[in-house]
Amino acid sequence: MLVLAATAPAAVTAPSRARPHMSHDLDPRHLEELKTNLQLRTRQLREEIRQTLLKSDQEQYAMIGDQVRDLEDDSFADLMVDVNLAEIDRDLQELRLIDAAKLRMDDGSYGHCESCGLPIELARLRATPFASRCFDCQSSFERTHFQNIGHTL
Fold first, then answer.
1. Total-model pTM
2. CA 71 to chain CA mean position, Å
3. Fewer Cβ in 10 A, N or C end of the chain?
4. Using only C-alpha atoms, what is the Rg of the chain?
5. Tell me, what DSSP letter sits at residue 115?
6. Please, which residues have CB within 8 angstroms of residue 116's CB and are 6 or more apart in sequence?
7. 119-137: burial string, b at 16+ Cβ within 10 Å, e else
8. Helix-strand-coil split of the chain, %, nearest 5
9. How many CB atoms lie within 10 A of CB 39?
10. pLDDT in tens, 43-53
11. What does the alpha-carbon distance between residue 116 and residue 19 come to, in Å, rounded to a whole number?
12. Which residues in the chain show pLDDT less than 50?
């Protein structure tokens, strides 16, 4: 008589959430392409900030408010200042995200989702080289944090 030993089912392990030391399967030319895109975007954002500051100086909102005492004109001048500040703030936020992506490139974690640890799709990295989450995790993050940051996809 043949007796078969019952074996416990093999344990199913979840994918590791630890970030690998190397930038997943990005080959060096893709990594270099993404690094170049980040550098170009950094220069572009700095120029946009410079142009916005120059535009603010040229528009001289304080003079508009001093010359005209109409409440609508004062409100418009305030609105224009706020719009320029919002543009600068948006650009500075993107520069911070780019700097964080460069740090991830240096430490080898670039290209891996900070939430689940899985590789971020190359197409997503090409579209948003500073992405720190895969599409699914970013979508989930935005559903739960929309009030604070707005959409980024």
1. 0.70
2. 39
3. N
4. 24
5. T
6. 15, 17, 134, 136, 137
7. bbebebbeebbbbbbbeeb
8. 65, 0, 35
9. 13
10. 999 999 999 88
11. 9
12. 1-23
